[in-house]
Amino acid sequence: MNTVVELDVTDLDSKGRGVGRLQGVVVFVDGGLPGDRVRASIVRSRASGKGHYLADLVAVVRPSPDRVRPPCPVAAACGGCQLMALSYPAQLRWKTRRLREALRRIGHLENVPVADCLGASRRLGYRNKAQFPVSAVRGKGLVAGFYRRGTHTVVPVESCLLQRPLGNKVVAAAVEVARESGLEAYDEESGRGLLRHILVRVSSDGREAMAVFVTARRTLPAGRRLAAALRKRVPEVRTVVQNVNTRRTNVILGLRNIVLSGPGHIHDTLAGLRFRVSVSSFFQVNPEQAETVYRVVADMAEGARRAVDVYSGVGTVALYLARRLSGLEEVTGIESNPEAVRDATGNARSNGIDKAVFICGDAAGVLREMSGRGARPDTVILDPPRKGCERAVLEALADMDCRRVVYISCNPATLARDLAVLAARGYRTEKVQPVDMFPQTTHVETCSLVVRR
Q1: Fold of 92-122+286-452
Q2: How far is Cα of residue 295 from the mean position of the Cα atoms in its chain?
Q3: Are the C-beta atoms of residues 123 and 433 closer than 8 Å to each other?
Q4: Percent helix, percent strand, percent coil in the chain, to nearest 5
C-alpha cells in the first residue's frame, strides 16, 4: 500500500511494535512508542475480524516524553532490543501493564494482585549467553549479528551492548578464525553453506567462556585447528564445541555435540552456588536478576518440606531452595534434557547438597508415576520454556492434589493460559511478581503463587 498516515501511538504489542488506530482500525508501527505522534507508511493490511495495518515509522512528529536516544547504533534495525528507545521506568511500567492485561484478557483472571515489576541495576552488559546467526556480506565476507526485525536478514553487530564484554570478545574472535578457515555461511533458502550460528556462554566472573560453532553438516574442516586458534586468541575460552544441526529449520541447536577442545562445559556461579553448564543445558542468561527471581520464589515457597521442580534444567532453582529453605527435606527435579540432568546431578554433588535428586523424563509422565507410588509434594515449582506447560503436566499436577504451586514464567500469554487451567482445577492465583530479567526487550519474567482453594 505504502500510504503515509499520521497517528498517535497509545501502546505497544507483545513484539514491541507501537499500536495506534486509523479510522478505528488498529495499526502496528515498527519503531513507534506510547505517547509518540508519528508519520508511518502502511506496508500491509490483514483482514482478520476488523483487520489491521502493518506500518513502518517514517518520522516522529512529536516524541513521547518517555522516548530516549538508544545507546546502540543499530538499535533501530536489529530485532534484539525492542525497547531500547523507551526510558527504563517506562519499560517497567509497560511490562507490569502487559502482564496485568494478559491475565485479564487471556486468563480471564480478575482481581489478581500483580505487583510492580522489579527493575534491574544492570541494564546493559547483563547477558552471559548469545546466539549469533552468521551470514555472508558483500565486501565483508563472513559476519555475525542479529536478525533484522521481522526477517532472517542478519544485521552485522560488532559488539552487542547487552552482552558481557568477554562474550563480545569471543564472538569477534570466532568470526575471525572462521573467516580465515574459509568457512562458508549457511543459507536458509538454498540449504548451502556450513556455518549457521556461533553460540557463546561466559561465566559471571569473566574467567571462563564456551564457544559453539553450529554447522549444517558433520564435517568441519580442520575443526580442531579452528578451536586451537580461537583459544590462543582468547585464553578465557575453556572449551570449543561443534553442534551439528542438519535440519532445514530455524531451530538453532541440533542434537549432536562434538567437543573440539576442552571439557565441553564451563562453570558459573549463581547465588553462591557453583554450576556446570553444557551446550544445550538451560542456565539463566542474567544471573544477577535470576537471584532476584529465586529470592521471590523462595519467599513464595517458604515452609515447603517436599518440593518438585518441574523443568529443572541444571538444577539452579532446586539447589537454591535446598540451600535457602531450612525446613525443606527433599526436592526432586524433573527435566527432559539428559545433558542438563547430568549437569544438575553433578552440581548437587559439587555443592554438597544431598537432599536434591534429578529425574530425566517427560514431566507429565514422571508426575503421574510419582503420584502412582503415593508421592505427595506440598510444593511444585514450574519453570517451563516460553511455550508454557503442556496441559497434561498441569492435569497431572492437579491430580497430585499439591497445595501450592510457584510458577516461573517468561511469557505472560502462556502464563495466563496455564493459570486459567489451574483455576478450573481448583487453584487460586494469590499473588504475582514480575521481574525485569531482560532490560531493553519486551520479555518479562514472572513469579506467581498459586494455592488450592
Answers
A1: Rossmann fold (3.40.50)
A2: 19
A3: no
A4: 25, 35, 40
> Domain 4-67 in CATH: superfamily?
Nucleic acid-binding proteins (2.40.50.140)
For residue 394, the surrounding DSSP H or E stretch is helix 391-399
350: which 3 cell numbers?
559439587
Is 160 an annotated catalytic residue?
no
Q: What is the pTM of this model?
A: 0.93
Active-site hit among 81, 160, 360, 410: 410
453 residues of the chain, pLDDT tens digit each: 578 999 999 999 999 999 999 988 999 999 999 999 999 999 877 644 458 999 999 999 999 999 999 999 999 888 889 999 999 999 999 999 999 999 999 999 999 999 999 999 999 999 999 999 999 988 788 999 999 887 888 999 989 999 999 999 999 999 999 999 999 999 888 889 999 999 999 999 999 999 999 999 999 988 999 999 999 999 999 999 999 999 988 889 999 999 999 999 999 999 999 999 999 888 999 999 999 999 999 999 999 999 999 999 999 999 999 999 999 999 999 999 999 999 999 999 999 999 999 999 999 999 999 999 999 999 999 999 999 999 999 999 999 989 999 999 999 999 999 999 999 999 999 999 999 999 999 999 999 999 998
Domain boundaries, the chain: 4-67, 92-122+286-452, 129-264
Give the separation between CA 255 and CA 50, rounded to whole angstroms.
Answer: 43
Distance CA 410, CA 385 (A): 7
The CATH class that applies to domain 129-264 reads mainly beta
Element (H, E) at 133: strand 129-137
Strand partners, 431: 449
CA 61-65-68 angle, 5° bins: 90
